[in-house]
Amino acid sequence: MGKEAEKVRKPRFLCLHGFRTSGEILKKQIHKWPESVVQKLDLVFQTDLTRPKANPTLKGSSILLITSGSSSTRGQYYRRAAGAASQRCGSNEGETDFLKPYGLELLESCVDPVVINHPKGHTIPRLENNTRKGGESEKGSTCAISLPRIRSFASNSSVEATRVMQSMTSPVSISYLTQREAAEIDEILMGPLGFSVNQLMELAGLSVATSIAEVYKPSEFNRVLAICGPGNNGGDGLVAVRHLHHFGYKPFVCYPKRTAKPLYTGLVTQLESLAVPLLTVGDLPSDLSKDFDILVDAMFGFSFHGAPRPPFDDLIQKLVYLHECNQTRQKSSVIVSVDIPSGWNVEEGDVAGEGIKPDMLVSLTAPKLCAKKFSGPHHFLGGRFVPPSIVEKYKLHLPPYPGTSMCVRIGKPPQIDISALRENYISPEFLEEQVEANPIDQFRKWFDDAVAAGLKEPNAMCLSTVGQDGKPSSRMVLLKGIDKDGFVWCTNYESRKAHQLSENPGASLLFYWDGLNRQVRVEGSVQKVSDKESEQYFHSRPRGSQIGAIISKQSTIVPGRHVLYQQFKELEEKFSDVNLIPKPKSWGGYKLKPDLFEFWQGQQSRLHDRLQYTPQEINGRQVWTIVRLAP
Ligand SMILES: NC(=O)C1=CN([C@@H]2O[C@H](COP(=O)(O)OP(=O)(O)OC[C@H]3O[C@@H](n4cnc5c(N)ncnc54)[C@H](O)[C@@H]3O)[C@@H](O)[C@H]2O)[C@@H](O)CC1
Ligand SMILES: [K+]
């Protein structure tokens, strides 16, 4: 029961309004907030401020106070008394208010209160669905309160806590842990929260490996050396190496102070079974950059203290030296530190300025204080396992992890020189003698590969058309069908592309399958498909898309999004009892009959494959000839 009751506890707002006027005024105003918000709050309307003892029980709650009234200045000292957590909506200074002692007494009876001082007379603060501090940018105007802020007070609800986490995407709002907090969290996770060290280490190591893979592709940064220390940070390194091996890297490990516990011996056995070389300190060259592209620093994490003892002192020096040499090299190897750059003070960072300068830091669980001093280009967060109770207890602001990813970038991505962006493709052989004689069959083969590779919308293609003015235009459309005669897509017959096609039936299609390093160009002439075929396509679409197609007079100007919504709603109602929504006349399919195909596949050193198919008449029969074009 206790837990359930906690879960549904609502954040309590104590609503005050000026001196001896009534909280009733706020009660009347509060209906301006959406019902869905008001229902989630426990609103208490307090009338007589001189009788704070008459307040309802406030114990154990985080309280938000709203003070209102144009003449009131007392919100200001409430806010100050409440400290940094307060949220301000503009106020005049005022120390002389005779109600001050009552106000402060009231504050003391609240737990960790946030004061919202809204000085706009008989109005109620506006709600905003963002994390901006309410009202600061609009002093004196109508005040706004950020909804996420309110949600953060819906304490003990796991859903709300998750939402708060997700709303904290700005890098400045990320929390940093002290060394003690990091150790405490570790204990809580592995104590009351039921995690095992093996589990956390597996997730941490996987996060490190995925962070590395996001930035440093195995095609360019293949040889990895992980230097692992005696504790859990070293264990994270061992796990990361296993994943990196499976991701296509060639990893090596230097693990000079092995721990005899089964967890660690097991990790070493796993690496041996993958034939990952385990190097001694003596095996390492003096200049690590000769043999390795990535150096994973997994020597020490948040339990490090003092000065590094041998052999780690020398190993750290090797990494420092590497960084110094990198400054003068054209292609350099990179250093990735796990959780803490080894040798740095966990809270102060690289105090003497002579330590490791990693290119990438993967903070685990939450960044430690020293991470504020990290100045490399890639800061990632990993360890997607933090439960809401930890988020709440330590008031953590962590960015949301995208999709199913195990890591998330913190802070700004590095400035990128677009001209330097290039991929060194590695693809299978693509030879004339291996390809299908008919390009449609070859297309089908590559399309199936794209589907099997799980690529998003493999049927997305760029359609380029040119009207009689000679100006080309391109857009992405979805391939709806393919047969021996060509490629079909559907659209509005009054759209811009339709006009261009009516003037000039010549068009080109481009499929690009990133991940497979492949693209296919298809060129030819376009015709409308039969009405029957268009009908079939139309009714194969989801109902919403059918209605959408009816209301969209494609490529014409719309006064605003609301117009589309309104029309959509009207049509939804109109067709609510109708089984088959009639296809509008202006909607239908086109088919491109190809007269040229080019299959392109990226290869190393820009020696890409380009096989072109064009039709030829041989003895009255149409055959496709295949030629290889220079990349
Ligand atoms: N939530 C968490 O708390 C998690 C922690 N993990 C990892 O665990 C790390 C912390 O692990 P540990 O507490 O085992 O500690 P560390 O891995 O930071 O290091 C402890 C080891 O280093 C030695 N050591 C400390 N100072 C030294 C010095 N000056 N010279 C030489 N040796 C020194 C200690 O004797 C001990 O053997 C984190 O940084 C992180 O990488 C992850 O595995 C998973 C999640
Ligand atoms: K480290």
TrEMBL record:
<dbReference type="Pfam" id="PF01243">
    <property type="entry name" value="PNPOx_N"/>
</dbReference>
<feature type="region of interest" description="Disordered">
    <location>
        <begin position="122"/>
        <end position="141"/>
    </location>
</feature>
<dbReference type="InterPro" id="IPR029058">
    <property type="entry name" value="AB_hydrolase_fold"/>
</dbReference>
<keyword id="KW-0479">Metal-binding</keyword>
<dbReference type="InterPro" id="IPR019576">
    <property type="entry name" value="Pyridoxamine_oxidase_dimer_C"/>
</dbReference>
<dbReference type="Pfam" id="PF03959">
    <property type="entry name" value="FSH1"/>
</dbReference>
<comment type="pathway">
    <text>Cofactor metabolism; pyridoxal 5'-phosphate salvage; pyridoxal 5'-phosphate from pyridoxamine 5'-phosphate: step 1/1.</text>
</comment>
<feature type="binding site">
    <location>
        <position position="297"/>
    </location>
    <ligand>
        <name>K(+)</name>
    </ligand>
</feature>
<dbReference type="Pfam" id="PF10590">
    <property type="entry name" value="PNP_phzG_C"/>
</dbReference>
<protein>
    <recommendedName>
        <fullName>NAD(P)H-hydrate epimerase</fullName>
        <ecNumber>5.1.99.6</ecNumber>
    </recommendedName>
</protein>
<feature type="binding site">
    <location>
        <position position="233"/>
    </location>
    <ligand>
        <name>K(+)</name>
    </ligand>
</feature>
<dbReference type="InterPro" id="IPR011576">
    <property type="entry name" value="Pyridox_Oxase_N"/>
</dbReference>
<feature type="domain" description="YjeF N-terminal">
    <location>
        <begin position="182"/>
        <end position="398"/>
    </location>
</feature>
<comment type="subunit">
    <text>Homodimer.</text>
</comment>
<dbReference type="InterPro" id="IPR000659">
    <property type="entry name" value="Pyridox_Oxase"/>
</dbReference>
<dbReference type="Pfam" id="PF03853">
    <property type="entry name" value="YjeF_N"/>
</dbReference>
<feature type="binding site">
    <location>
        <position position="342"/>
    </location>
    <ligand>
        <name>K(+)</name>
    </ligand>
</feature>
<dbReference type="InterPro" id="IPR005645">
    <property type="entry name" value="FSH-like_dom"/>
</dbReference>
<keyword id="KW-0560">Oxidoreductase</keyword>
<feature type="binding site">
    <location>
        <begin position="232"/>
        <end position="236"/>
    </location>
    <ligand>
        <name>(6S)-NADPHX</name>
    </ligand>
</feature>
<keyword id="KW-0547">Nucleotide-binding</keyword>
<dbReference type="GO" id="GO:0010181">
    <property type="term" value="F:FMN binding"/>
</dbReference>
<comment type="pathway">
    <text>Cofactor metabolism; pyridoxal 5'-phosphate salvage; pyridoxal 5'-phosphate from pyridoxine 5'-phosphate: step 1/1.</text>
</comment>
<feature type="binding site">
    <location>
        <position position="339"/>
    </location>
    <ligand>
        <name>(6S)-NADPHX</name>
    </ligand>
</feature>
<dbReference type="InterPro" id="IPR004443">
    <property type="entry name" value="YjeF_N_dom"/>
</dbReference>
<keyword id="KW-0520">NAD</keyword>
<dbReference type="GO" id="GO:0008615">
    <property type="term" value="P:pyridoxine biosynthetic process"/>
</dbReference>
<dbReference type="GO" id="GO:0004733">
    <property type="term" value="F:pyridoxamine phosphate oxidase activity"/>
</dbReference>
<feature type="binding site">
    <location>
        <begin position="301"/>
        <end position="307"/>
    </location>
    <ligand>
        <name>(6S)-NADPHX</name>
    </ligand>
</feature>
<comment type="similarity">
    <text>Belongs to the NnrE/AIBP family.</text>
</comment>
<keyword id="KW-0288">FMN</keyword>
<feature type="compositionally biased region" description="Basic and acidic residues">
    <location>
        <begin position="129"/>
        <end position="139"/>
    </location>
</feature>
<dbReference type="GO" id="GO:0052856">
    <property type="term" value="F:NAD(P)HX epimerase activity"/>
</dbReference>
<keyword id="KW-0664">Pyridoxine biosynthesis</keyword>
<keyword id="KW-0630">Potassium</keyword>
<comment type="function">
    <text>Catalyzes the epimerization of the S- and R-forms of NAD(P)HX, a damaged form of NAD(P)H that is a result of enzymatic or heat-dependent hydration. This is a prerequisite for the S-specific NAD(P)H-hydrate dehydratase to allow the repair of both epimers of NAD(P)HX.</text>
</comment>
<dbReference type="InterPro" id="IPR036652">
    <property type="entry name" value="YjeF_N_dom_sf"/>
</dbReference>
<dbReference type="InterPro" id="IPR019740">
    <property type="entry name" value="Pyridox_Oxase_CS"/>
</dbReference>
<keyword id="KW-0285">Flavoprotein</keyword>
<dbReference type="GO" id="GO:0046872">
    <property type="term" value="F:metal ion binding"/>
</dbReference>
<keyword id="KW-0413">Isomerase</keyword>
<dbReference type="InterPro" id="IPR012349">
    <property type="entry name" value="Split_barrel_FMN-bd"/>
</dbReference>
